[in-house]
Specification:
Elements (H helix, E strand, L loop, with lengths): L1 H22 L26 E11 L5 E7 L9 E2 L2 E3 L6 H13 L6 E8 L10 E9 L9 E4 H7 L7 H15 L4 H8 L2 E3 H11 L10 H7 L3 E3 L12 E4 L6 E2 L1
Length: about 260
């Protein structure tokens, strides 16, 4: 696992070096992209890095599998390549608003169940335009929500992660880890992923698909749901039983914005 992580970082750095040489973008040519750094209290002149807001759109299919959205970059660097939706933070703009702008402008997504910040990425060679810091968000999207981005199954995303530009492979890896560790431990996020109703089978499949764990052994999921204070059997169970039994959260509120 650690070897694969190091290998991805080496590949990402190599791609950024090639892009930097190809597009001939130097730090002193970035005046239009950032505010001047100025001089700090110690009298040292500093250049402020760019702040990038990168979003990992996620949705759970009706079968319980998880998908991620990528879009084709319209501008250099890495024009024409598939990437996570992201934007540079504007002066005076809040990061949460920038995340919504990235979803709207790059992925065509206007509605989400939740937007959750999960990490900060500051690899020094992550961007050929110069030093940047990425603040990363998960955006949980309901199935069927309109989008212009391409939805990619989790297995396919893992397979093509090394081809993503910037350090998006590391961001994707961080998104997987965030979902796997927060699933069921973070109830609002879990509600956003499962939706208002879900089946025992979908719950087990979701955990397996993301590399996480169900709240208990799959054979004991029904017992665990029965004992959960905020989960109940869904009203319509016609023809359903066993792992196809459907469950519902006792209230409909599933939003989780950070």
């Amino acid at each position: 696992m650690e070897h694969d992580r190091v290998a991805r970082r080496v590949v990402a750095r190599r791609r950024v070096r090639v892009a930097r040489s190809r597009y001939r973008v130097r730090t002193d040519e970035r005046a239009d992209d950032r505010e001047d750094g100025g001089v700090d209290e110690a009298g040292i002149e500093r250049q402020q890095p760019l702040v990038s807001i990168d979003v990992v759109p996620v949705r759970v299919t009706d079968e319980g599998t998880i998908e991620f959205a990528l879009h084709e970059r319209p501008y250099e660097p890495f024009r024409g390549e598939m990437a996570l939706p992201g934007v540079l933070l504007n002066g005076g703009e809040q990061v949460r608003a920038a995340a919504a702008r990235a979803l709207r402008d790059k992925a065509g997504i206007d509605e989400t169940r939740a937007i959750v910040q999960f990490g900060v990425f500051d690899e020094t060679m992550r961007d050929p335009r110069g030093p940047t810091i990425s603040i990363a968000y998960l955006a949980i999207v309901a199935p069927g929500t309109p989008a212009t981005a391409e939805w990619v199954p989790s297995s396919a995303l893992v397979a093509r992660a090394a081809t993503l530009p910037f350090d998006h492979a590391s961001i994707v890896e961080g998104a997987f880890e965030a979902i796997a560790t927060r699933l069921w431990a973070d109830e609002p996020l879990t509600r956003a992923l499962t939706g208002p109703t879900f089946s025992t089978r979908e719950t087990a499949r979701l955990a397996a698909d993301i590399g996480g764990h169900p709240p208990t052994d799959p054979s004991n999921l029904r017992r665990w749901f029965v004992q959960h204070p905020r989960i109940e059997r869904a009203a319509d169970q016609t023809g359903l039983g066993g792992r196809d039994t459907r469950w519902a959260w006792q209230d409909a509120e599933a939003a989780h914005d950070e």
